[in-house]
Task: inverse folding
């Protein structure tokens, strides 16, 4: 099965990249742009058919490696 | 003082650390490969600068999971001295041996230049040969040295005198919270710092302000 | 089987004549794979067909040259059993299409050329040319190229210690990214690419092969039009982490004696590496593509042979040493595969899925590759103009010049490069030449990249001489002995006789200067077809020079160090304003002739200055080049934060040409007052034209008698301000 | 309205980051992990209520700044 993991900065953690993108977009004339945040998306293929097991294993991956939970939060999305 | 330098596949200041240690201790440090699971019998472990595993995903994230880091953790837990320089600092935060995290520099650019630091704390094995408030100049070379921790952690670090070095006012190269350049752990046997003291132990290379850090360790640990 | 049609031949960048020649050489029609192989091997990029004939005229020998052009990089002897290996290479077209990855993979490619010969890279340089600052693409390109160079070099842990950055509208559609790598090896442990002997395993090392940059080599030899900007061919993505592993693994393997030959896979990947190794070794090579580590499914033989995936090497081992080598590469977590064998047939044979996809004589790809003597017209050199607007205020002009795009501080650039890693950088970016210590010794290597394209446009011959002379001067100015150069010849379309004339003139100029200065050419690279919509770049023959410093403790820098030093100008000032920065920046004119270069005088002045530094008598030297004498003085004042007070005593030249003329063979020295008389006496005795022009002072100003003064602070603001201000505006892809 | 933009590498383009993450996950014992690709996710706030207009403007932003279309592709997701 395929999984998509989002790793984004926690609220309250300053996001210099997002801010820079926001400024650049304003500079380019996209005045309607408000707050911008940048995160990572990780697409994985998983040899696992049990959804619950896949989810547990992905959670484990996030905690151990994919996210730094001091500053980041994560969301897991499964696609069949 | 017996020392070891950890070598990750893309460490690149390992030789710089080795040269500085050799110059100041007169002895070659052990160079320890990241796949090793045990450390030689040493007083000091140095986590050098560089890009450990390419610094893909996050700086130091993959290194924190390496087998050698289990041994480094054990060494630190037993009270052994550990210093992480630059990428080494990032590895220490990712391993949770030090609090907080190192984020992208505020201006998003890699920066290599000498910066002015103030020595904030001299009650440690790493800094006792400096004087409190002393201004030193040490180069930085990093893209992700922007120290972040929540307010509570920052207050605690300051309250417990665990901020070892700060960037001098107006010379913060990366946007670090409260100008923090280097911090100690609770037991004060682990130091992480973004600037490179090992690059300034020779006047020919731009100064000797890094020497006292190694001399402090030699005095304490020999 | 794919039918070979005239359209297909044309798409491969081959002319009808070339295709006829291929059929003659093979005695039959080529297969599709063979056509692809010919197209890359006979491309301008790989075959040097337009320049080869002229490159032969370059001086390439000297007692200290261990390896001249013809290998992946050149090698010089620097004493004590040490060898220095270096080369410069362009990645112009890819960097225009995708600046970050283009520049990054350019850095990776040139590093592989150097470590494939057994050297550990110890310093990187880069020579960059961008379009005019106001062009909508320039900012984005500068940002991406600089980040790409840093991204790759920093991760490799090799200090990037200097280079050049210029802006000119002629580069609007064709930027230049030339990267140079300098490495260190033991003179008795150099690795070459000659795959001598039959029956030896051919091994593939590094990253897997994907469909990256297929036809990169032919792209680099084709002119751009606006459509190719849209087409956006696949560019390669660099992986510096894998390259770092590859470097360490190769050096580890090289410490054994298992290697017969080794060669990086650069442009035209597997094709050119195997053909070149077979060609140089006088052997044949048989490849089994089923064994090639592949990143993508269903790759064809054509794709594998032409892929330009990065971070790969090809080596020929002594038989029976495969397991030992494999162990090293497994330790570094790299792919390793035996993909072929050397033969005695002198043929390149490519097998895939039980089929022979190519079987051709290797000489057809190398010796038989076309060598063209293209028609050329040497342009008449422009003559100098002596007129200038006398009403301009000297000190205002200084501030303008020092803060102009080509003269402003490049700090914004080099602070993004780790220039102090490896703990041997004894002279950082910003001076005349960078100096890196030879680890564990007191020796140093001085490195500089130079060329003044506007001079080359006005007079390719004199301009190319000037590039070599300036390189010689920069290296002498820090106190090192210039030993050898690598060149990077960047030009427009050689099919135009005027452009070909520029190329020939420049090669002749380089040859003459290198001969006169005992400064041989040990390698180089050509990048032609740098044209968009018929408009060529300024001729840009970049010179990368390397010199040897006996003792890094006796080194000069540009920074003024003390008050009360005498300022001594060595060399004659006639006030040559043609093609000067002054005329361009202050009067808005790009005219006049290139400054003439007297090579005998260059050599004499260089030797004199070097001796003073080596003897420990002088520690402050700057060469006079772009922007003339007053710019040089201002740069010295800025670097040391010490003022100067100068005058024009004893000359008939007017103040403007005196202070902003770009006459060659000149140096400014700051010498302790008590040494000044003695040094002047020696200069007189040596018959060297010179003048005491003033002294260093406590006030933080640059002062010119009767002309006024400007504060160092104001100059600094202009000098340091331009780049960050320019780059802070928003820019798009 | 809120928008989420995914910027990922085109198929066939080497993804050193994804490769390294995959290797690291294997090293940590997550044997079921197959191919891994890493991309960016950009969350934006937009002062724009017309969905079509928002989409057009986001597309423009992607082409001009957010994606490097030489090697990357993008997807736009709108949330009310
Ligand atoms: N302009 C030049 N001057 C001198 N030598 C050159 C020049 N251009 C190419 N060469 C030499 O021709 C050989 C082939 O160059 P190149 O194809 O760029 O090598 P590689 O594929 O290893 O990068 C090299 O030895 C190079 O030094
Ligand atoms: Mg090569």
Result:
């Amino acid at each position: 099965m395929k999984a998509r993991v989002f790793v984004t900065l926690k609220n309250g953690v300053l996001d210099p990249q997002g801010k820079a993108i926001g400024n650049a977009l304003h500079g380019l004339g996209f005045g309607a742009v408000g707050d911008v945040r940048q995160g990572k998306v990780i697409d994985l293929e998983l040899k696992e058919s049990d959804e619950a097991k896949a989810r547990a294993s992905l959670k484990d991956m996030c905690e151990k490696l994919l996210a730094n939970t001091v500053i980041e939060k994560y969301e897991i999305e499964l696609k069949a | 003082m017996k020392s070891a330098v950890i070598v990750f596949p893309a460490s690149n200041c390992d030789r710089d650390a080795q040269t500085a240690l050799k110059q100041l201790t007169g002895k070659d440090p052990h160079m320890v490969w990241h796949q090793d699971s045990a450390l030689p019998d040493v007083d000091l472990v140095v986590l050098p600068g560089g890009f450990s595993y390419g610094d893909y995903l996050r700086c130091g994230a993959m290194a924190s999971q390496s087998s050698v880091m289990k041994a480094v953790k054990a060494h630190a837990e037993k009270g052994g001295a550990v210093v992480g320089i630059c990428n080494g600092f990032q590895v220490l935060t990712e391993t949770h041996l030090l609090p907080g995290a190192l984020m992208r520099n505020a201006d998003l650019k890699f920066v290599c230049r000498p910066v002015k630091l103030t020595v904030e704390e001299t009650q440690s094995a790493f800094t006792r040969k400096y004087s409190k408030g002393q201004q030193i100049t040490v180069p930085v070379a990093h893209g992700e040295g922007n120290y972040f921790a929540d307010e509570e952690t920052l207050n605690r670090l300051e309250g417990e005198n665990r901020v070892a070095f700060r960037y001098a006012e107006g010379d913060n190269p990366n946007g670090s919270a409260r100008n923090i350049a280097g911090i100690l752990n609770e037991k004060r046997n682990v130091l992480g710092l973004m600037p490179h003291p090992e690059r300034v132990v020779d006047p020919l290379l731009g100064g000797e302000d890094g020497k006292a850090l190694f001399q402090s360790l030699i005095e304490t640990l020999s | 089987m794919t039918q070979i049609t005239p359209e297909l031949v044309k798409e491969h960048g081959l002319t009808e004549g070339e295709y006829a020649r291929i059929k003659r050489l093979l005695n039959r029609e080529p297969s599709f794979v063979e056509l692809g192989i010919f197209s890359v091997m006979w491309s301008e990029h790989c075959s040097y067909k337009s320049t080869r004939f002229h490159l032969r005229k370059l001086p390439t020998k000297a007692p200290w040259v261990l390896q001249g052009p013809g290998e992946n990089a050149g090698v010089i002897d620097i004493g004590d059993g040490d060898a220095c290996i270096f080369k410069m290479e362009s990645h112009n077209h890819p960097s225009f299409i995708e600046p970050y990855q283009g520049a990054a993979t350019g850095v990776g490619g040139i590093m592989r050329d150097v470590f494939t010969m057994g050297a550990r890279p110890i310093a990187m340089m880069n020579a960059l040319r961008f379009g005019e600052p106001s062009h909508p693409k320039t900012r984005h390109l500068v940002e991406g190229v600089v980040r790409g160079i840093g991204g790759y070099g920093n991760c490799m842990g090799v200090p990037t210690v200097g280079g050049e950055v210029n802006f000119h509208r002629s580069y609007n559609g064709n930027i230049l990214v030339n990267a140079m790598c300098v490495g260190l090896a033991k003179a008795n442990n150099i690795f070459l690419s000659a795959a001598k002997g039959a029956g030896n395993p051919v091994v593939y090392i590094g990253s897997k092969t994907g469909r990256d940059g297929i036809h990169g080599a032919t792209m680099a030899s084709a002119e751009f039009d606006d459509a190719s900007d849209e087409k956006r061919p696949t560019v390669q993505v660099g992986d510096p982490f894998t390259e770092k592993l590859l470097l360490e693994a190769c050096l580890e393997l090289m410490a054994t004696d298992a290697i017969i030959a080794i060669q990086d896979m650069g442009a035209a990947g597997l094709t050119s590496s195997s053909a070149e190794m077979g060609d140089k070794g006088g052997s044949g090579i048989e490849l089994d593509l089923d064994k090639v580590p592949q990143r993508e499914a269903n790759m064809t033989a054509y794709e594998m042979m032409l892929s330009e995936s990065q971070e790969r090497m090809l080596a020929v081992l002594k038989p029976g040493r495969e397991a030992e080598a494999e162990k090293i590469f497994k330790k570094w977590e790299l792919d390793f595969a035996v993909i072929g064998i050397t033969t005695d047939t002198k043929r390149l044979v490519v097998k895939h899925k039980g089929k022979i996809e190519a079987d051709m004589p290797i000489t057809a790809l190398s010796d038989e590759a076309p060598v063209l003597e293209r028609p050329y017209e040497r342009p008449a050199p422009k003559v100098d103009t002596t007129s200038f607007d006398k009403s301009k205020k000297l000190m205002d002009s200084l501030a303008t010049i020092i803060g102009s795009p080509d003269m402003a501080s490049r700090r914004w650039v080099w602070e993004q490069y780790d220039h102090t890693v490896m703990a041997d950088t004894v002279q950082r970016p910003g001076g005349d030449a960078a100096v890196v210590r030879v680890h564990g010794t007191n020796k140093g290597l001085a490195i500089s990249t130079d060329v003044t394209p506007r001079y080359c446009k006005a007079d390719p011959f004199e301009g190319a001489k000037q590039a070599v002379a300036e390189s010689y001067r920069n290296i002498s100015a820090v106190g090192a002995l210039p030993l050898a150069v690598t060149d990077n010849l960047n030009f427009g379309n050689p099919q135009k006789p005027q452009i070909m004339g520029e190329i020939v003139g420049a090669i002749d100029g380089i040859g003459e200067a290198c001969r006169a200065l005992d400064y041989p050419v040990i390698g180089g690279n050509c990048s032609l077809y740098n044209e968009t919509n018929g408009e060529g770049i300024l001729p840009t023959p970049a010179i990368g020079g390397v010199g040897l410093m006996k003792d890094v403790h006796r080194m000069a820098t540009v920074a003024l160090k003390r008050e009360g030093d005498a300022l001594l100008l060595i060399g004659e000032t006639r006030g040559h304003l043609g093609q000067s920065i002054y005329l361009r920046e202050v009067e808005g004119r790009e005219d006049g002739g290139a400054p003439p270069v007297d090579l005998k005088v260059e050599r004499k002045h260089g030797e004199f200055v070097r001796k003073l530094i080596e003897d420990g008598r002088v520690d402050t030297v700057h060469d006079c080049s772009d922007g003339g004498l007053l710019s040089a003085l201002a740069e010295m004042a800025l670097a040391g934060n010490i003022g100067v007070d100068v005058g024009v005593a004893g000359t008939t030249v007017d103040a403007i040409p005196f202070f902003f003329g770009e006459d060659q063979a000149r140096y400014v020295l700051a010498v302790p007052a008590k040494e000044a008389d003695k040094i002047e006496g020696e200069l007189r005795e040596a018959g060297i034209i010179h003048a005491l022009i003033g002294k260093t002072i406590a006030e933080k100003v640059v002062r010119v008698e009767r002309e006024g003064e400007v504060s160092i602070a104001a100059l600094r603001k202009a000098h340091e301000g331009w780049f960050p201000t320019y780059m802070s505006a928003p820019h798009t892809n």
